[in-house]
Amino acid sequence: MTSSPSPDSSRRPTVVVTGANGFVGGQVCRALVERGSVVRAVVRRPGTAPTHPDVTETVGDFTDASFAAQVVDGADAVVTTVHPMGSDRAAQHEIGVVGTSTIARAAAGAGVPLLVHVSTAAVYDRSPGVGDVSETSPLVDDDANDYSLTKRDTDAALAAVDGMTRVLVRPPAILGPGETSVWNTLRPAAVRDDEDERRALAGQSFPWVHVTDLAALIADVAVGRIALSDSAATGPVEGACTPVDVAAPTALYADYHRVVADAVGVEPVWDESPAWTGRIPADRARGWGWSPAVTLDAALDEVRAGLTAG
């Protein structure tokens, strides 16, 4: 096995992070600094990157090929976290598919050996009756929602970029505090304000991961703590494009929904329609040495505390 960059190198690795001011991107920056990296934090608005002596804010649009080439020059790895979730399909395609592949090609052209992309488990077909899903499971069809479809297409675009190792990290629901956190902030606000959002499938599975556990795996790959391999079972395959699911033990959506409804002071409405009841075992990530540290109880306590405090 080899690793790139080496965590034992006397030279500190430089990692570029797009979306460094975002929910996941900010946590990735912190995890990288904890591992001894220096970070080039790519943001579009000045003054929004995490503040730390080892984090350098770089303002620009990574969808622009010239800026992308400039920001990746001399880097040891690139981590891409940006996707305009909630935007229309054209914007999601332009930024997610076109933009992410633009900076990936720039990195490959600059000789950057590794790119880690934050994808999503929403690329898998999780229709009722499908069962457990993994990295080898069928992906969504072209009639899927805009988010799943454009994330699927971004993964495909990155798979077509040669000349570097690419890792597609696929989390399910990401729990953790933050103003832009979907599951701790935005989704609860919708449940509070919209009666339709209080309806939930009673038996639906709820695969999830805490943002700090997700960031830990991303950072470990980016700095080489998880070594490259010739088998996806033990690490990212050197020179190839390797997907990896990152999930804690699967819960029920009802577990999450009850906590949210109670915290915002509304009654949940249970729907008995067919739902996906499978799991995301994340065996590949565990084979790489990763395991989640945050329990479901702790994550839901965090959701509850944040909502009641607000």
UniProtKB/TrEMBL annotation:
SUPFAM superfamilies (UniProt xref): NAD(P)-binding Rossmann-fold domains (SSF51735)
GO molecular function per UniProt: aldehyde dehydrogenase (NAD+) activity
Domain NAD-dependent epimerase/dehydratase per the UniProt entry, residue ranges: 15-218
Name this protein carries in UniProt: NAD(P)H-binding protein
InterPro entries, sorted: Epimerase_deHydtase, NAD(P)-bd_dom_sf, NAD(P)-dependent_oxidoreduct
Entry GO CC: cytoplasm
Superkingdom of the organism of origin: Bacteria
